[in-house]
Design goal:
This protein is mostly beta strands. It is built from 1 helix and 10 strands. The longest helix has 8 residues. It starts with 14 loop residues before the first helix and ends with a strand.
């Protein structure tokens, strides 16, 4: 999670917080699976680089306690394998892709998962 986020009433915008608004912290995930967590919110770019298919699970609200409606998690797939998404327990995922219930992202493509309601996410971007 970017430094100082989420902010609360009375916080003063520091240089670190401002810089966190204009840049991404990049985290590389090269394994076959990954489950998002609170550290993936707020200006984090998850770069997946697996040669085979990689599955990212969108965790439920019980795990993503810092995720409010409008929270976004951004992904870029640099690996040769497709990046696929799975719903954690009780989570609903929709997407703009051709297969909206089983979205995937090809190599060198990016997408963003946006929380639109409790345990409900829409994946937008270069989704197939």
């Amino acid at each position: 999670m970017a430094t100082g986020f989420p902010a609360v009433t009375g916080d003063v915008l520091s240089a670190a917080m401002y810089n966190g608004l204009v840049t991404f912290n990049i985290t590389d995930q090269s394994g076959a699976t990954y489950t998002v967590d609170n550290d993936d919110l707020y200006q984090v770019l998850i770069q997946t680089s697996n040669a085979s298919t990689k599955t990212v699970t969108i965790a439920p609200d019980a795990t993503l306690t810092a995720a409010a409606d409008g929270s976004a998690i951004t992904f870029i797939n640099t690996g040769a394998g497709d990046l696929t998404f799975a719903a954690g327990a009780g989570v609903t995922i929709a997407s703009t892709g051709a297969a909206p219930t089983a979205p995937f992202v090809a190599q060198y493509a990016a997408c963003t998962a946006i929380r639109v309601a409790a345990d409900s996410w829409i994946i937008v971007g270069a989704v197939q």
